[in-house]
Amino acid sequence: MLQTPLCPSAGQARSEDLRQALNPNRTPRRRFPLTPLALAVLGAVHEGSWAQQDEAVGLKPTPALREDIPAQVRGQQPSFVFGDRITGRPDLDTTIEGDAEMRRGDTVIRAQRLEYWQPDDLAKARGNVRINRAGNVIEGPYLELQVDAFEGFFTQPNYRFLRNEAYGQASRVDFIDENRMVVRDATYTTCQREDYPGWMPAWILRAGGIRLDQEEEVGVATDAVLSFYNVPILPIPRLSFPLSDKRKSGLLPPVIGIDSLNGIEYRQPYYWNIAPNRDATLYPSLMSKRGVDLGAEFRYLESTYRGEVQANYMPGDRLRDMDRWGYHLRHDGALPGGPLGTLGLSLNLNRVSDDNYWRDFSRTSASLTQRLLASDGLLQSNVGNWYFLARTLSWQTLQDVTSPITPPYDMLPQLLARHTRQDLPLGLESSVELNSTRFDSVRELTGQPNAQRSFMLGALQRPWQAPGWFLIPRVQLHSTYYSFDAPLTNGRLQADRTLPIYSVDSGLVFERPTSFLGRNFLQTLEPRAFYVYTPFREQSLLPNYDSGFNDFNFATIFTENSFGGHDRIADNNLLTVGATTRLVDPDTGAEAAKFAIAQRLRFKDQRVTLPGGQPVSERLSDLLFGASINWDPRWTFDGTVQYNPKTRRSERVTVGGRYNPSPYRVVSAAYRLQRELSEQIDVGWQWPLNDLWGDRGLELGPGRGQGGGRWYSVGRLNFSLRDKRVVDSVLGLEYDACCWIGRVVVERLQSNINTSNKRIMFQLEFIGFSRLGSNALGTLRQNIPRYQLLRDPNLPAPSRFTNYD
């Protein structure tokens, strides 16, 4: 069996040191005599402890265990010294020889000889000097340091940082203060040493100088060269790199990709950390087949508003022989509204230069890769029981001659007011909605006149509810008025419609204890009946601006109207019956399984249809079956089947399942059928290939990988059974080598019936330093269900006590 190399971890490697520090009596310590100053301090501490023994016993937080020590507290902390021989003059100087040690707060200095000048707070150490500052360790032959100010220098040091386990060596380290240092003739890597002859780190940064800022959590290297397996791959005159995931200004790693549509693409992002609440990213790209694409993104976050702006401009696209551009703006905030209270303002603006933009720049922005681009702005407010909204919505429709789209109507504007009350006499509840919308589009494309539509929808209901049952009768009144810009086919410029809607929703809940397969459960049985009656009103001459069929599912089958929107109100006289049963863990309340069934019983034909539709005469609707099973936390299953009892076949099927036994092992699959339209299988996975030869790896937890030397297969395939071809596919390999991760991903996305876009992405991730290559990681996170990062930068930083001396 192959052995998996263990990526050394500061927390694991030093757990024994932590136990020793927390329990110093575990083994005898060697010669640690205390200075008179230390004895006096310890005496004061013990006196205070005895004085508090009469108080109530309980756990109390202690400042000694906090991660950061404030500057005002640091100067007041006592010093402790240990050694084989201690000499000195009180309040002037102290000399410790032989296993010398000095402790103050989170700073520990050890050496063969240690001299300390108390008036200057200056320590000089010689011989095997080691300093541990909040878990960061530096070792070398000679140290001079002002302890509190942390100013001084270290000669010929070796250093290791706790946060990202990076280490290296240098000719000299100059300490500027407690957070900043300059390392000269330095090396830097996160590859942990392995015990075999000739070992070399897989990657290493060599620099003439490195300035490290632990407060800003950034490093700046000058005259640097990055080597990978002893091969220089990136000469760097000046480079800044993160010591954590904290934001900072500077050049980001370049992105290089190969695309069948754009050719070889090189993108060089620059990140500008304008302020803690504002930043910008510039990402100019060079595409070998197209030219230069200038892209930028700006983000802002304030106490009362936030947003982002993204824009791209390509002058002279060589493939299309035209300038190309696109922009996306998102803003959410609040404005003072006077008598209307605080106004919520939301903007979502999207526009591109031409109909082919979504196909040619499919990865520019998720909001710009669709064929219907919305530009939406709204103001909204809540005042007591009232809700007010003013909205404008316009669409840009990107047409494809092989698959044209009828443009939706713009709403310029929509005005809405809604009032709700749940505290009326006799337990009544009410709601009233007033809505007026202006619909605009090109009549030659829609075949309908533009119009102003206004409606009032009032509802009154009286719920009766108890733990085992509920009954909710409800009555609604829907009154609509239209004013058209041009006459209808009957010559009218106005139209109106008023309809009452009556409904009763009811249900029961039964419970019983039971057991299945050796497990105890609380099983429920929840029958439900929903009746609705809406009289017929002729609506065939009315235009249709926003109505469409509601999807037939468990969320819509228990509703009054078969249509969405307000231009069509179905005439109904039907009863929907259904039942649900659940298996619930009585101890945790977790739902192990749920099964549901529902069907509509129609007592008369539905005559109201959408334009071009046919009346519904079937007395029994299709049956809906639903199931969700979470019997084992590793397995999940859910599915919905729409079954036609007349034809005895399913009309729509959606079945999905997922197996996730441990981190980095997940397989998901889904089958989707829509009769006569589509039939697809979707499979996604992330799985260690080392499992094939018996190497199960290490369970280090999410975001930490499974140890070094491991291969992972990742992918997603969407296959059309109807067309017998792969629609979209993403296939990739990841290799985890502890201090670096390599990724190769091949992506194929269908842009229309006959064409697809293909690209190959390579990415090297140097742990604790940077990523080079294409954005393969972004593609995997977007496409692989439940994909997990091999290294998650958002994991909590290790405590300084994990490397405690």
Automatic annotation (TrEMBL):
GO terms for cellular component: cell outer membrane; transporter complex. Keywords: Cell outer membrane, Membrane, Signal. Residues 1-30 are annotated as: Disordered. The keyword Signal applies. It is found in: Cell outer membrane. Residues 222-314 form the LPS-assembly protein LptD central domain. Residues 323-693 form the LptD C-terminal domain. It holds the Pfam family LptD. One of its GO terms (biological process) is lipopolysaccharide transport. Belongs to the LptD family. Together with LptE, is involved in the assembly of lipopolysaccharide (LPS) at the surface of the outer membrane. Component of the lipopolysaccharide transport and assembly complex. Interacts with LptE and LptA. PANTHER family: LPS-ASSEMBLY PROTEIN, LPS-ASSEMBLY PROTEIN LPTD. This is LPS-assembly protein LptD. It comes from Ramlibacter henchirensis. The gene is lptD.
